[in-house]
Amino acid sequence: MEGCEKMFVSKAVNINEKNHLEIGGCDCLDLVNTYGTPLYVMDEALFRENCRRYKNAIEKYYDGKGLVVYASKALCTTAICKIIEQEGLGLDVVSGGELYTAITAGFPMERVYFHGNNKTYEELMLAIENNVGRIVIDNKEELVMVHEIAYKSGKKVNVSFRVKPGIDTNTHEFISTGQIDSKFGMAIENGEAFEIISKALKLSNLNVMSLHCHIGSQLFDLELFKLAAKVMLEFVAELKEKLNIEIGELNLGGGFGVKYTKEDEEIDYDSFIGAVSEVVKGVCSQKGIKVPKIVIEPGRSIAAPAGITLYRVGSVKEIKNVRKYVAVDGGMTDNPRYAMYQAKYDAVIVDRPDAPRTEKVTIAGKCCESGDILIKDIMLPEVKSGDVLAVFTTGAYNYSMSSNYNRIPRPPIVLVKDAKARIIVKREDYGDVIRNDIIPEDL
Predict the structure, then answer these.
(1) Which domains does the chain have, with CATH numbers?
(2) Which of 67, 142, 258, 436 has the fewest C-beta atoms under 10 angstroms from its C-beta?
(3) Residue 6 has pLDDT above 60, yes or no
(4) 272 within 8 A of 294, measured Cβ to Cβ
(5) Positions modified as N6-(pyridoxal phosphate)lysine (predicted)?
(6) Active-site choice (4, 76, 284, 368)
């Protein structure tokens, strides 16, 4: 239907000839009838398009001397890893579980960057045994462990260093990571970043390859990204001057904002990358250093817009002169982001997506928890029990942060493209929920 892009925040959906919402050429009601609810749905074509948008921009602005690394914490499954491999991107993993997923999917280990602020010895063993491309060192204890494992393994390990550039992003404190008061990395301003790199250069089984920073998530201010690049390159110049080391790779992280509601900005990621590249080249010229290979790590902005979640409405409860609650068959177990930091979403009723929005309701989940809310005070058409609700922009940090709270099984993920749907994560059942339970023999 003409004009549907203006109606919807999500670029993944449109309205078909039945006046139903569809995604990837699949009618959302048909998906629900086949796979049930709640249901995560990912538009494969849009996911791949988002990958290519970043890859094309990096190649254009850095003359092919860059790499896009997908931040898999946004959404990590074996099928997603396979798509990332096919699109020629690298993979950012932050745990042994994400690394194991990549290994199982056959992802090229040389394109894997292993992050995390408290990697265990066992996780580092797994990474080094499988020859990951970069281990991103977060602290001095980790540096010692990596060198010890590398020495015992008879390997020379490529390492990067997570550096805090000292930038306050003024976003929610839970997703702001570049300031000095952060659990991640080592700060420039107090000298700890310089100190640990100095120490690493003396360790025989390590190759100091790159620096990494990440200033936060869901950021819309281009100036923050430009400032981060400037601060990091000035540090690269300092390392060259004082330690005689040329850092050949600079990872500027991710954090690009995503349009969740009509109030959010629409970022032109290409222009963002182009503007930052001008800063990179300018500072390098001014400081007399080579332009390093530039790495970026988008995750949310690749996965989030490509996903929706479908729910079935159960009860509709109106508290006169207070609030109208619409309860769905999911909630904070499949999307905890509102409960954690009041994240905002948009939604429509699947079989009347263009109907006038005439009443204000709050979408609540089914958990035994007062904070189990998905969307507070959203305008929708009159909602009735049995309706199917589509919540937009749920491709990132929904499945990956899901839980079995209240012993609720996790929903499946369906990948759609060209009117074809394929399951990439199966629906859990009650057997999956109790799979690891044990009753001791003496009970």
Answers:
(1) 4-43+304-433 (2.40.37.10), 115-298 (3.20.20.10)
(2) 436
(3) no
(4) no
(5) 73
(6) 368
Is 185 annotated as ligand-binding? no
In which element (H, E) is residue 34 found? helix 28-35
397 marked ligand binding residue: yes
Q: Which DSSP letter does residue 306 get?
A: G
For residue 234 the two structure tokens come to 């000035």
Nearest-angstrom CA–CA distance, 415 and 49: 15
pLDDT band at 2 (very low <50, low <70, confident <90, very high): very low
Q: Is 368 tagged catalytic?
A: yes
At residue 170, the pLDDT reads 53
CA distance 376 to 207: 50
Written as one string, the DSSP assignment of 128-184 is HHTT-SEEEE-SHHHHHHHHHHHHHHT--EEEEEEEE------S-GGGB-SSSSSSS
Q: Across the strands, what pairs with 309?
A: 40, 391
The answer to whether residues 328 and 314 touch, using CB atoms and an 8 Å cutoff, is yes
Q: Using alpha carbons, select from 307, 314, 317, 301 the residue that is nearest to residue 402.
A: 307
Reported as a single tens digit per residue, the pLDDT across 127-185 is: 999 999 999 999 999 999 999 999 999 999 999 999 999 886 554 343 344 455 567 78
Asked whether residue 311 is marked as a ligand-binding residue, the answer is: no
In the structure encoding, which two tokens stand for residue 105, read together?
A: 């999917």
Is residue 405 part of an annotated ligand binding site?
Answer: no
User: What confidence tens digit (pLDDT) does each residue in 227-244 have?
Assistant: 999 999 999 999 999 999
337 assigned to a ligand binding site:
yes
With H, G, I as helix, E, B as strand and everything else as coil, classify residue 75: coil
User: How many other C-beta atoms lie within 10 A of the C-beta of residue 364?
Assistant: 24
pTM of the model: 0.94
Cα–Cα distance between 207 and 219 in angstroms, integer? 32
Residue 299 is assigned to a ligand binding site: yes
Residue 255 is labelled as binding a ligand: yes
pLDDT (tens digit per residue) in 61-91? 999 999 999 999 999 999 999 999 999 999 9
Structure token digits, residue 272:
């963002």
User: Which positions ≥6 away from 376 have C-beta within 8 Å?
Assistant: 338, 342, 362, 363
